[in-house]
């Protein structure tokens, strides 16, 4: 299955608890951390929820 790399570019400070939990679910909780995940609709939805805090890395 395909994978997708996600990098955290925004801080979770002053963000809602559900956005913080989504970042942790993606394996991100510190700035500039990169996580490699399986490309699934569930992961895409989590990325969309915090799209202002993450970037997709090639």
Automatic annotation (TrEMBL):
Pfam families: Ribosomal_L30. Keywords: Ribonucleoprotein, Ribosomal protein. InterPro entries: Ribo_uL30_ferredoxin-like_sf (IPR036919), Ribosomal_uL30_bac-type (IPR005996), Ribosomal_uL30_ferredoxin-like (IPR016082). One of its GO terms (molecular function) is structural constituent of ribosome. Residues 4-54 form the Large ribosomal subunit protein uL30-like ferredoxin-like fold domain. One of its GO terms (cellular component) is cytosolic large ribosomal subunit. The keyword NAD does not apply. One of its GO terms (biological process) is translation. Part of the 50S ribosomal subunit. Belongs to the universal ribosomal protein uL30 family. This is Large ribosomal subunit protein uL30.
